[in-house]
């Protein structure tokens, strides 16, 4: 896990136990109330990002969804790159 030990951020935080860093802490528990998931508030174009602090060749990104409401990831995009231009949307999809 190249994201271990770095900090993640997200556009908003739904509840205190839905922190962005929960998404990279290695805890794969899909139960939202176990502080193992990140979540934003309902908003237009929410985002989550992590700065890995170094360059890596990324071949796999693993996403574990919460145990309920899987449709909330519908339309999610994973972009990889160094640019924050256009809120990171100019990076490779």
TrEMBL record:
Locations listed in the record: Secreted
GO molecular function, one term: metal ion binding
InterPro entries, per the entry: BG_Antigen-Binding_Lectin, FTP1, Galactose-bd-like_sf
UniProt keyword Membrane present: no
Main location: secreted
A family per Pfam: F5_F8_type_C_2
UniProt keywords, alphabetically: Calcium, Disulfide bond, Lectin, Metal-binding, Secreted
SUPFAM superfamilies xref list: Galactose-binding domain-like
Domain (Fucolectin tachylectin-4 pentraxin-1) ranges: 1-92
Top-level taxon in the UniProt lineage: Eukaryota
GO biological process, one term: regulation of cellular defense response
GO CC, alphabetical: extracellular region
SMART domains reported for this sequence: FTP
PANTHER family: FTP DOMAIN-CONTAINING PROTEIN, SI:CH211-215K15.4
Family: Belongs to the fucolectin family.
Subunit structure: Homotrimer.
Function: Acts as a defensive agent. Recognizes blood group fucosylated oligosaccharides including A, B, H and Lewis B-type antigens. Does not recognize Lewis A antigen and has low affinity for monovalent haptens.
Protein name: Fucolectin tachylectin-4 pentraxin-1 domain-containing protein
Organism listed in the record: Chiloscyllium punctatum (Brownbanded bambooshark)
